[in-house]
Amino acid sequence: AQTVTQSQPEMSVQEAETVTLSCTYDTSESDYYLFWYKQPPSRQMILVIRQEAYKQQNATENRFSVNFQKAAKSFSLKISDSQLGDAAMYFCAYRSPTSGGSNYKLTFGKGTLLTVNP
Amino acid sequence: ETGVTQSPTHLIKTRGQQVTLRCSSQSGHNTVSWYQQALGQGPQFIFQYYREEENGRGNFPPRFSGLQFPNYSSELNVNALELDDSALYLCASSLAAGRNYGYTFGSGTRLTVV
């Protein structure tokens, strides 16, 4: 079974600065998807960024980028020019690409609470 | 395009009771998944429904059951509630179309069992 580990329960960053959130995972599969989700106090999970394991290029979405190290099974999220609205719980998640049943499920880490200081 | 709507937003139940949570999927989505998020934890997969049938289940007992309706909305039913069932229950809808589909989450139902 796949596992996802987020070793930083809490992180803080100054507004306009850069912060990196860590995530490692364990899997025996060679192809899979990795995600970063943001959960603000509104509780809704919002997709921040997605990475497909077969793509070597790191995904980027505006101020958000990842450092995907497949061999090390590491998937960190970098937030540049941090804004007050970035404050939230961030979850790293894994999904198998294969079809059928619970292979579609997302396996989440325990999350990192990000505080942005003005 | 409407998102995922869950009801109710909050619920308090007594141990041993039964509860039904509801989820309306995003327009165009045909698959619904349910997750349980205990306080301070990441969401845990309960089960998934596709074309009105359960097609995947996590490590949850049979007292957790569900339904999906022809309009792709879904219900999560929990019987014989236990104190440990207190959690945020999240619904996510998606369009099951091969490798590349995304999930849209609702804002969840906060269930408290006393």
Walk me through this protein's architecture.
The complex is a heterodimer of chains A (118) and B (114). Chain A is built from no helices and 12 strands. Chain A is mostly beta strands and 118 residues long. In chain B, strands 2, 4, 5, 6, 9, 10 and 11 form a 7-stranded mixed sheet that branches. A 4-stranded antiparallel sheet of chain B has the order 1-3-8-7, with no helix packed on it. The chains are: A mainly beta (118), B mainly beta (114). At the A-B interface, strand 6 and strand 11 of A face strand 4, strand 5, strand 6 and strand 9 of B.
Give short descriptive properties of this protein.
heterodimer; A: about 120 residues; mainly beta; 6-stranded mixed β-sheet; 4-stranded antiparallel β-sheet; 12 strands; globular; B: about 110 residues; 7-stranded mixed β-sheet; about 0% helix
Strand content of chain A: over 45%
The helix/strand class of chain A is mainly beta
Low-confidence stretches of chain B: none
Mean pLDDT of chain B: 92
Short summary:
With 118 residues, chain A is mainly beta. Chain A has strands at 3-5, 10-14, 19-21, 24-26, 33-39, 46-52, 60-61, 64-69, 74-79, 88-95, 107-108, 112-117.
Question: What topology emerges from the helices and strands here?
Answer:
The complex is a heterodimer of chains A (118) and B (114).
Chain A lengths: L2 E3 L4 E5 L4 E3 L2 E3 L6 E7 L6 E7 L7 E2 L2 E6 L4 E6 L8 E8 L11 E2 L3 E6 L1
Chain B lengths: L4 E3 L2 E4 L5 E6 L6 E7 L6 E7 L2 E5 L6 E5 L5 E5 L8 E8 L8 E3 L3 E5 L1
